[in-house]
Every structure is written in C-alpha cells, then in structure tokens.
Amino acid sequence: MPARKRPGKKQPATSRPTPKRKQTRGKRKRRQKRSVYPVVAATCFGVVFLLGFFTFWFRSDNGDADRGTIVAADQLNPLAKVDFEKEITPFFQKYCLDCHSADFQEGDFSFDRYADGDSIKRDREIWTKVQQLVRLGAMPPADSDQPSKDESQKIIDWIDYQLFFVDCSVPHDPGRVTARRLNRTEFNNTVRDLLNVDFSPADDFPSDDVGYGFDNIGDVLSVPPLLIEKYLTAAEQIAEKAIITQHPKYISKRAFGKELKEEGAVSSRGDGSKAIVSRGRVYHQFNLPESGTYRLIIEASADQAGDELAKMELKLNERVLKVQEIQGHREENLVQLEFEGSAGKQTLSAAFINDFFNPKAEKQKDRNLMVRSLRVEGPLGIPDSVRESNSLLKVYPENGVSVSHAAQSNFREFLPRAFRRPVTEAEITQYVSFVEMASERGASFAESMRIGLQAILVSPHFLFRVEESRQQVGEMEQLDDFALATRMSYFIWSSLPDEELFQLAKENRLHEPQVLKEQTERMLADPKSEALVKNFSGQWLGLRKLTTNEVSPDTALFPDFNEKLRLDMWKETELYFGSIVHENRSLYDLLDGRYSFLNERLAKLYGIENIKGEDFRRVEFKNSQRLGVLTHASILTLTSYPDRTSPVKRGQWVLENFLNDAPPNPPPTVPGIEETQSANPNLSFREQLEIHRKDPGCAACHVTMDEIGFGLENFDAIGRWRTQDGKFEVNASGTLPTGESFNGPEEMIAVLRSRKTQFGRCVAEKMLTYALGRGLEYYDRCAIDKIMIDLDSDDRFSVLVTGIIQSAPFQLRRNNK
C-alpha cells in the first residue's frame, strides 16, 4: 500500500527530495542549500505556574512522533533478508546519486548518508517521501534513466518493510498522548453537563490550533497568556450562573420621593425628599412576585425638637411592622427591617406619628420627618427546591452545620466529576479553604461557594485531561477505568463522562469488552453524540471552511449563492453524516448512499421539485447522478475556485480525505495554469489542464488527481448539475493509472467503492487520530488492521467506533518512566 503524507504537519524543506531538474545530467548547477528544519486574583500566579508545569511535564514523548505512517499488514512484503549492499545500493547508484550524493545534494538530501536498512529509520519522514515519489514515478525525474516497474516495486516494498513493519502478534508500542487541555468545544460542553448551565464561555477564547486535521490534538493545544486571562474571566461568569445567591424571583425596587404618594401634611423638598411636617404619611404600592420574606429599606432624616426623637411608623397595608426613632438632627438614617409579604400588590408606608411644635423655643422649635425613598428587596433566601437541585448547595450551614462541613459535603460529590477521577480529602480541603476565606470576609454561603467553584474551574485538573493508569504491562500502562471513561466521553460526546460511566469506572468494570461495547452503543444513541457528528465531520470533510474566506463563490457568476445557501450546504452534509451515525448505517454509505437531506433552497439548486420551506427532510435519489457525500454541494463548492471548478482541488480532496493518499507538495518552480490558459485561449479547461500537466514535474501526481476530479466536472463551482462548461461540452471521463476507466460521477464513485477497503482504512485512521488526540504512528497499524478485519464482517458505523475504543492505542499508553 502506498505511503501517505501525514496531514496537518508543516513539512521541513529537506523532507521531500526535489524531483524537478532544469538541465541534463552532468551539467547541473548546484542549488543553494535551503535551511533545514478578588480570590481569583490571588490564585492567578498559581494557575499560570501550574498550567505551564502541566504543559511541560506531560508533553508526549512519541519517539517517532513526526515520522510514521500507516501501511496495511497484508500488503507488507517481509524483505528482511534483502542484502542492502548488493540489492538496494545498486538501485540508488544507478538512478539516484546523480542528484542526491555527497557531491551534489539536491534538496539537501544525499543517499550516501545511509549505510544499511536500519539507518533509514532515523529519517522515517524523509524516506516516506522517497517511497511516495518513487511510487508516483516522480523519482527519478522524467529526463533521467527510468527503472523498470519491477525495480521500482522492489524498492517501494523494501522501504515499506524497513519503515513500517510491526509484528502485531507480540505487544507493541501503544504510543502516548500529551496531557492536553480541553479545546473550546469540550470546555463549553463540559461546563454545560457539569453545572447544567446554558452558557458557552469558551466562545470568547482564542481559536484552537489544528494538527493532523483536528483541533483536539494535544501537541498543538498551547496555553497562551491570553487564554489564562480568559479562563479566569470565564470561571467568574460560570460561577455566577451556576450558583444562585438569591431567590430566582428576587426583586429590588426603589420608590424615590417624587414617586411616593402623600396623605396628610406632606410637602416636597428641593432635594427630592418628602417632608411630613405634621400628622401624615407617604406610601407606595409594590408588586411582590411571590410570598416570602422581604427586606424594607427606608432613607429618612428628621428635624428634631422637644424631649424625644422623631418617630416613624412603618406599615404593610394596615399592619404595623415597626416604629423607628430617627437619630440625629437632619442626619441621614438607613432603616432596614424584614417582613413576611404575600404575592401581589402590597402597600408599604412611612408615617410621622409624634409631631411637635414650640414657637417659644430658642432653637429647635419644630419636629418634622423627611423620607427620601422606600426600597423593597426579596424574596430573601434560596428556596429549598433550588438548593436541592444544585449539588453545590445541597448541604447548607444551618441547624448546627458549619460552613466548612457544608462545603466539604458539597465538594465531595462535585469534585470527582469536575476532575473526572476520584479525589483525596486533601484536595477537597484545598477548595473548602477558599469557601471559608470568603465566608470569613462576610460573604454569604452561596457567594462563598462561588469562590470555591471559581478555584476549581481554573485548576489544571479541570482544564486538562490528565490520565492515570491502573497497571503496568511491560513497557506499557493500562489506563484506569476513569481515564478510559474520559477518553470515551470526549471522543463521542466532546464532554465529561456521565453518571453511568462513572459508576462503571468505580466498579472497575468499564474496561470489560462486553461492557465497553454496550456503553459505546448507548453513547452513540445518546443525543450528545451529535458532538461527534459535528466535530469530526466538520473537520474531516472540511465543512468548517465553508464559512471562511477560503470559500467565496463569485455571486456575479453564481447569483443563486448566498449566505443562507452556504449554511444549507453544510447542514446537508452534517445531517447525512449524522444519519450514518444515529441510524448505525454502513460506513460505505458515505461513498454511494442514494439519499440526502434537503430544504427548498438546496432542492432548487439540485433541480428537485416539490420541496418547500426551510426545514430539511430526507429525500431518496432514484434517477439522479447524486450519491454519497462527494456530490454534495458543500464538498463541490469548497473544492472549487470562486469563478470555476477545479479538477485538481477535487481530486486532491478525494486522495487526502477518502484514500489517505495525499500527493506531495508541487515543485516550487512549476508555473501556474494561467500561463497555459493565456497561450491556449480556445481550448477547453480540461484540454488546457492536460497540456499543463505534461510538465515532467507535474505529471506523476496529476495523472491520478486530475482524473478523479474530471469525474466530478458535471457539477459546477457551487454544485449544480451541468452538461456544458461555457461553449464546451463537459467531458467527465477519466482513466486512472491502475487502469480503471469511468465516465461521469456515478462511475467514478463506483471505482472508489471498489476500493472500499482503502476508504474504510482512511476513515478509521482519521477517526482514531480524532479519538486519541494525537497523530498516528507506524506502530498503530496493528490497531487499524484489527478494525478493518471487524469492518470486513460488519461495516456498520458502531463497529468502527467500538473497534477504536477497544484498540490498544485507546486503552494503553507507553510507560515513559
């Protein structure tokens, strides 16, 4: 099987021997060598240190991390006995040393560096490129002597064996995953499921880096300073939403002097207050949302006179709540009292009840009462139903229960879920101390629990996925059941494990094969598995690019295209992939399933009648050229240019995403097709492209890539069916180097279906990458082989997912100690 370029990695300049040569042998100019290869504030320093520590300490040591690839076991030729000096070196001397020797190292690459088969393993990535270029016929260059087919195949097979052979019958390296932080999607989902809040704080985080095609790869999920600031802000916002510190129907309404109604000897003052100069009162009607305890707050002052202080009588309707003496002469008094109020409109009043006037007094002759405002707050407290539904408030410091004991009880249940593993008493005590500190400073218990929760949410144990092992097997460690539950849940749900997974982990039963199978099927049936649909398909198929500037059809040429249609395209493919997942259909329906999901806009684009409205519905394709995802408008649009289709981009997309056989990067000196178009304006685009690819540096890759793309030429740049391309009739025929011919998309897809094992292997490799959060290595091929054996007998989607979860790379890790 051909070697494959690992997606998502930038290749160093020396990793691809350059096949392009400008002069005949012996007269080359040497090219210049290219360069080679508030409480929260108190915890901020600790967070920065711990995040940096975790990022450094748990960085993976993958050994050959950037140098592996996957090759099918049944296509490996065990050439262990091949004599390097007698059988391999002569090939290099005859066909390679003219360009790649110690004296002339084109591409800064020389075969003289390698003395035997073992030596090439030091540069596994470079030799993967060598194998690929020989297989494609790009090396030796077209103007050099060419090896026979048998000679080339022998070298290809020998490199396969040296680089990728693994004896799957004995224990082999399961790899090791970097302890990685939660990406934005995982953070949002974890907060949602942990705290039951409808809030997406990570939407404000910096975008996640992508590696190997996915945004959950540990080696690229860095922690920049800006993200740490966002973590702190998010923790505060989440805590406010997760822990209610007051009644859900709490109100705080204030009636100022001008809003107060008068009765008796009352006048308005210039400062906005009401002066009650004799018997009288001010009042206001408040609408209480619910029966309960409320707080009444009155701002008042008095002109004092006589031998007693001014007195204010406070009433709820006709019921006297309190008689309050007002202190000081014209000094502001803030009077507060709690009362039991019934739901509905209630009248609260303040009356002056001890008027006094003595005109003969020398100074303070007249006693008066001034009221600036009445304010009502409540209902006070948190209802029992709310406390009981919130795991962080179930135990309250009342009836002899201390703040410390209540916080411990609440965290003892919550902390294991937040950290996704059992916790120690010392860890619980650490976070209880935050609650105690806030409480000692006057915060309510609910407010104090908010502070404790903030500390938990910025802990590395919450932000990072750190895995523990339960036993060591040789140089390997078997993950404990809690780490296994976490891997499963973030793979399928992009969120933390639920209670059933936790319970099985506690019972140490989750790793049992039958239990794993049952749980996998349960998780796929859960609505949360939509995360796998959105996140995996959106990245594997490139759907996320649809909403970027990379996809911008020219609306002058394609007036049907608009932003709504753009989102419809994405939705169709997402729903289609979701049907494979949720209905547990054959994996190979992705290639040639004859149905899809359309709304009116998309149906009109496809030329399908009698579909009305915005809602998507399943549509069966009977006599249609559309089948599988390759004929979806989403894929056809993102593999086109703004003004035309691109057989090259479409063919490359198929090679990379369906066959995992990405072509090498193009030679840097090859001109673009624009020169060919300018020189041949009267030819069809296909004819122009065929002229362009006659360049020896291009032909080897384009002969496969372009032919596949030609098979989709009946679809224009936004996925509409066509038979004409301008004044030229569309020619959608093609012949692959392996001899298969086709005419049109249906026959081309049939050719791909005949290679379903290669397609299935590609999907398995990409999904294992997504599930593990790391790039695959050559030693992972044993796991892929086993998955493919399972798919040969049952090709349903759940079999693929179960195979991944039961694989060695998913359940084991390398012991680096």
Outline:
By secondary structure, the chain is α+β, with helices and mostly antiparallel strands. α8 (403-419) crosses α9, α12 (481-492) runs antiparallel to α13 and α25 crosses α27.
Give your account of this protein's structure.
This protein is an alpha+beta fold. The protein has 28 helices and 21 strands. The strands form six sheets. Strands 2, 3, 4, 5, 6, 7, 8, 9, 10 and 11 form a ten-stranded antiparallel β-sheet that branches. A hairpin with a 2-residue loop joins strand 17 and strand 18. The longest helix has 20 residues. It is elongated and about 130 Å long.
Q: Tell me the number of helical segments per DSSP (H or I, 4 or more residues long).
A: 28
Quaternary status of these chains? single chain
Low-confidence runs: 1-37, 39-77
Helix content: 25-40%
For the largest beta-sheet, the strand count, sense and barrel status come to:
10 strands, antiparallel
**Strands, total number:** 21
How large is the share of residues in beta strands?
5-15%
Mean pLDDT: 87
Class per helix and strand makeup: alpha+beta
Cα-based radius of gyration, to the nearest Å: 37 Å
The 3D shape can be described as elongated
Amino- and carboxy-terminal Cα gap: 35 Å
